[in-house]
From TrEMBL, chain A:
Upper classification of the organism: Eukaryota, Viridiplantae, Streptophyta, Embryophyta, Tracheophyta
Organism annotation: Rhynchospora tenuis
The protein's name: glutathione transferase
Stated family: Belongs to the GST superfamily. Phi family.
Pfam families, sorted: GST_C, GST_N
Enzyme Commission numbers on file: 2.5.1.18
UniProt KW keywords: Transferase
TrEMBL record, chain B:
Sequence ranges assigned to domain GST N-terminal in this UniProt record: 1-82
GO cellular component: cytoplasm
Protein name, per record: glutathione transferase
Catalyzed reaction equations: RX + glutathione = an S-substituted glutathione + a halide anion + H(+)
A molecular-function term among this protein's GO annotations: glutathione binding
Residue span, GST C-terminal domain: 87-211
Keywords recorded for this protein, A-Z: Transferase
UniProt xrefs under InterPro entries: Glutathione-S-Trfase_C-like (IPR010987), Glutathione-S-Trfase_C_sf (IPR036282), Glutathione_S-Trfase (IPR040079), Glutathione_S-Trfase_N (IPR004045), GST_C (IPR004046), GST_Phi_C (IPR034347), Thioredoxin-like_sf (IPR036249)
GO biological process, one term: glutathione metabolic process
SUPFAM superfamilies in UniProt: GST C-terminal domain-like (SSF47616), Thioredoxin-like (SSF52833)
Entry's EC annotation: 2.5.1.18
Family to which the UniProt record says this protein belongs: Belongs to the GST superfamily. Phi family.
Length: 218, 211
């Protein structure tokens, strides 16, 4: 039985999502780089793992999958134990669905905005590009409405799906981590429960480990 | 108290939930939400869906939103095999293609439907450039689907799953447009769609959507 392989680069937000979960469960894994600069993501070898030519892709023995939230769920299901937090709550119908609901909220409402703000305002300048300020501004306005919803929820429960931490919370890490390095980080000051939730999340060792592989934000 | 789905049955995201309900044979009511009068922004609705969208869902004291999460709740509650949660690898393959449905297929497909079906209904002009751009994106996605469905009968494997059924509402509308013929270039995708259409739950939901 081999070591699990994550294909991609740890600095990428979607790859970092998977690394957080691998660190949460303390699994053995290897990150296998995919070199976009030489078009490696379009090679038959990579397309066999991710037919859309994206990262991450993932292998565990004969299982080859893609889509970072799916990979994350697989890792958390495989390694669920009493030593780690129950991040999927699959023994409870309502709780597991609330995790799914807020994971969908992250994927549909939050990440599309914050990913692009972070990419344009932080990542692109780091790699010698110029961000799209109009896109940043549009997304910031939309993000305020989303954060209002989060503020209301996090005023009722400690974490998004309830008073227990879950994959839904952790899935927010990659884009938010880079967002906090942009000039717009203080937006969260207007949403004190969201800010407190984020600061609490960042105390988790798994997030610090994933951060170590990402662009430095200090 | 039976399960309640809030929204209109013609809406794709609402129809997605109806498919799961019909698959498991559950009893449910559809409670309309009137967008024309701003009901989706009312306090009563925002409590059910804080983004002011549809569907929202209630089962006794459980309140949910996000159609794919609601679908998972229904399928789990009734112990349907459409999520394959007894097998960790199969479940992952189902999850992959549900994520692909949302992340790759849904956007171009629903954009085309919105432009060529909804806009004319409101007397708005169709933006052909937007339609063409999304058609090109959709074709790239269908190339991937064609390759996948040449290897196995359904998206997650040789078994039908929620991943396949999650594609139904948007594809239903696409097949009502002139762009139905795009699928002729992808014979395995076309065959996959035709197989899905034979399912009793799907026929029932089509009747509900077109009522």
């Amino acid at each position: 039985m081999g070591v699990m392989k994550v294909y991609g680069v740890a600095r990428y937000m979607s790859v970092a999502r998977v690394i957080v979960c691998l660190e949460e469960v303390g699994a053995d894994y290897q990150v296998v780089p995919v070199d976009f600069a030489v078009g490696e993501h379009k090679t038959p070898a990579h397309l066999a793992r991710n037919p859309f030519g994206l990262i991450p892709a993932f292998e565990d023995d004969d299982l080859v999958i893609f889509e970072s939230r799916t990979i994350s769920k697989y890792v958390l299901r495989k390694y669920k134990s009493s030593d780690t937090d129950d991040l999927l709550r699959e023994n409870n119908l309502t709780e597991s669905t609330l995790v799914d609901q807020w994971l969908d909220v992250e994927a549909h409402h939050y990440d599309p905005l914050v990913f692009h703000i972070s990419y344009n305002a932080f990542v692109l300048p780091k790699i010698g590009g110029t961000g799209d300020q109009k896109l940043i501004d549009t997304n910031l306005e939309k993000l305020k409405k989303v954060l209002e919803v989060y503020e209301a929820q996090l005023s009722k429960t400690k974490y998004l799906a309830g008073n227990f931490i879950s994959l839904a919370d952790l899935s927010h890490f990659p884009a938010t981590y880079y967002f906090m390095a942009t000039p717009y980080a203080n937006l969260f000051d207007n949403y004190p429960h969201v800010k407190a939730w984020w600061e609490n999340l960042m105390t988790r060792p798994s997030l610090k480990k994933a951060a170590a592989g990402m662009f430095p934000v200090a | 108290m039976g399960m309640k789905v809030y929204g209109l049955t013609k809406t794709t995201n609402v129809a997605r939930v109806l498919i799961s309900l019909e698959e498991v044979g559950a009893e449910y009511d559809v409670v309309p939400v009137d967008f024309a009068t701003g009901e989706h922004k009312s306090q009563a609705h925002l409590i059910r869906n804080p983004f002011g969208q549809v569907p929202a869902f209630q089962d006794d004291d459980v309140m949910l939103f996000e159609s794919r999460a609601i679908s998972r709740y229904i399928l789990r509650k009734y112990k349907s095999n459409l999520l394959r949660e007894d097998d960790i690898k199969e479940a992952a393959l189902v999850d992959v293609w549900v994520d692909v449905e949302y992340g790759q297929y849904n956007t171009p497909a629903s954009s085309i439907c919105y432009n060529v079906i909804v806009k004319p209904m409101h007397g708005e002009e169709v933006d052909l450039e937007v339609v063409d751009t999304n058609l090109e994106k959709l074709k790239k996605v269908l190339e991937v689907y064609e390759a996948r469905l040449s290897q196995c009968k359904y998206l997650a494997g040789d078994f039908i799953s929620f991943a396949d059924l999650s594609h139904v509402p948007c594809t239903y509308y696409l097949m009502l447009t002139q762009y139905k013929s795009v699928f002729d270039s992808y014979p395995h995708v076309k065959a996959w769609w035709e197989a899905i259409m034979t399912r009793p739950s799907i026929k029932k939901v089509f009747d509900i959507m077109s009522a």
